[in-house]
Design brief:
This protein has one domain: Alpha-Beta Barrel (TIM Barrel), CATH 3.20.20.70. The radius of gyration is 17 Å and the shape is globular. Strands 1-4-5-6-7-9-10-11 form an eight-stranded parallel barrel. Helix content is about 30%, strand content about 20%. It has about 250 residues and is of the alpha/beta class.
C-alpha cells in the first residue's frame, strides 16, 4: 500500500541521552483533552488540571510549557484509535502553532491515512492495532522515524505476540505501555520493565502507565530508561517543576 511520507528530518533520532526525557501526554477525544484511566476510553472525561483553566489542547500544552521546557509531546487521537472520527484539524493546528517542538502521534491503525504530514510529527505504531512483523517492516521501508508502542493489558501484549519474538524490524524507540496503570498513580510495572530490559537491550525504552512521583523517576533513570510518558502526575501537581529540575540534575 502507498504510505504518505512524514517529513520529520530525523528529529526523532536525535541522540537520546541519559538525561531521561519526560514526555507530557495529551489525550484528545472529541476535540478536548481527557483524563485517560486504565485505557477505558469510552469512560474518559475532560481533564481537570492544575496547569490550565480548561481542557482545550492548546491551553493544556501551554500549561505544560509553563511548568517546564519540555521538548517532546505525545498526542493520542482517541477518536481515530476507536474508529470514531478523528481530531486531525485540531492536531494539525496545534502542531503548526508549535514548530519548535516534536510531537509523537498515536492515531490508531490508519495513522498514515488520516494524520497530517508535518515536519515535527513522528508517527507511533501501537501493537494494539494488530500490526504484524511484515507490516512493520513495510512501514519502516517508507518511514525510518517511527515509534513502536508495545501495549500491555492484564499482563499480556495487545496485538500480535510475534512482535516480541524478534527485534529485527523494531525502530530505535520503544514505548512500554501498561494500560491497566494509565492514570491511576499506582506506580509503574516493575516486573514488566525488568523482564523487558533483561531481554531487549538495544533500544531506547520509554515507560508509560502509573508513574506519579520523583522517587520513581529517579529509579527509572538509574535503570537507564530513556524517557517517561506523564500526564496525571503533572496535572495533579504530584510531579513538580522542582522535581523535574532535580531529575535533570541527578
Amino acid at each position: 500500500m502507498h504510505l504518505p511520507r512524514f517529513h520529520n528530518r530525523g528529529l526523532l533520532n536525535k541522540k537520546i541521552t541519559r538525561e531521561m526525557r519526560i514526555i507530557p501526554v495529551i489525550d484528545i477525544l472529541d476535540g478536548k483533552v481527557v483524563h485517560a484511566i486504565r485505557g477505558q476510553r469510552n469512560a474518559y472525561q475532560p481533564i481537570t488540571s492544575s496547569l490550565s483553566h480548561c481542557s482545550q489542547p492548546d491551553n493544556i500544552l501551554q500549561g505544560f510549557l509553563g511548568l517546564y521546557p519540555f521538548e517532546i509531546f505525545y498526542i493520542a487521537d482517541l477518536n481515530a484509535i476507536m474508529n470514531k472520527g478523528n481530531n486531525v484539524a485540531v492536531i494539525k493546528k496545534l502542531i503548526t502553532k508549535y514548530p519548535r517542538y516534536i510531537f509523537w502521534l498515536d492515531a490508531g491503525a490508519n495513522i498514515f491515512g488520516t494524520s497530517p504530514s508535518m515536519t515535527n510529527l513522528v508517527p507511533i505504531i501501537g501493537s494494539e492495532t494488530n500490526i504484524t512483523m511484515m507490516e512493520l517492516a513495510d512501514i519502516r521501508k517508507e518511514h525510518n522515524d517511527i515509534v513502536l508502542s508495545l501495549d500491555f493489558r492484564d499482563k499480556r501484549l495487545l496485538g500480535n505476540t510475534s512482535l516480541l519474538e524478534s527485534t529485527r524490524e523494531w525502530p530505535e524507540n520503544i514505548i512500554l505501555m501498561n494500560l491497566d496503570r494509565v492514570g491511576t498513580g499506582s506506580g509503574y510495572d516493575r516486573k514488566l520493565l525488568n523482564n523487558f530490559l533483561s531481554t531487549y537491550r538495544d533500544h531506547n525504552v520509554f515507560i508509560a502507565g502509573g508513574i506519579h512521583k520523583l522517587s520513581e523517576l529517579l529509579e527509572l533513570k538509574h535503570y537507564g530508561v530513556s524517557g517517561v510518558l506523564l500526564a496525571t502526575a503533572l496535572h495533579r501537581g504530584e510531579v513538580t517543576e522542582q522535581d523535574l529540575i532535580t531529575l535533570q540534575e541527578a
